[in-house]
Amino acid sequence: xxxxxxxxxxxxxxxxxxxxxxxxxxxxxxxxxxxxxxxxxxxxxxxxxxxxxxxxxxxxxxxxxxxxxxxxxxxxxxxxxxxxxxxxxxxxxxxxxxxxxxxxx
Length: 105
What we know:
The protein is an all-alpha fold. It contains three helices and no strands.
C-alpha cells in the first residue's frame, strides 16, 4: 500500500512540475508584457506633457471638490448644533463662505 502511494506521488510530481513551469512562465510572460506596455505608455504621456494634472483648472476643480466635502460636513454639524440648541452663527458663516467659494464658477 505504501509503495502504491509513493509511486502515485512520484508520477504526479513528474507531471505536475513541468506543467507548473510551463503555465507559470506563461503567466509571468503575460504579466511582464503588460507591465512593459504600461510603462511605455506612461513614458509617452509624460514625454508629451500629459498626465501632470497641475493646470490652473485642475487646481480649481480640486479646490471646489474639497469645498463641497467641507460644506457637507459643516451643514451636518450646523444641523446637529441647531437640534442641540447651541449657537450656530459661526457655523452659518463658514457655510456661507463655502457656498460662495463653490458658486464662483
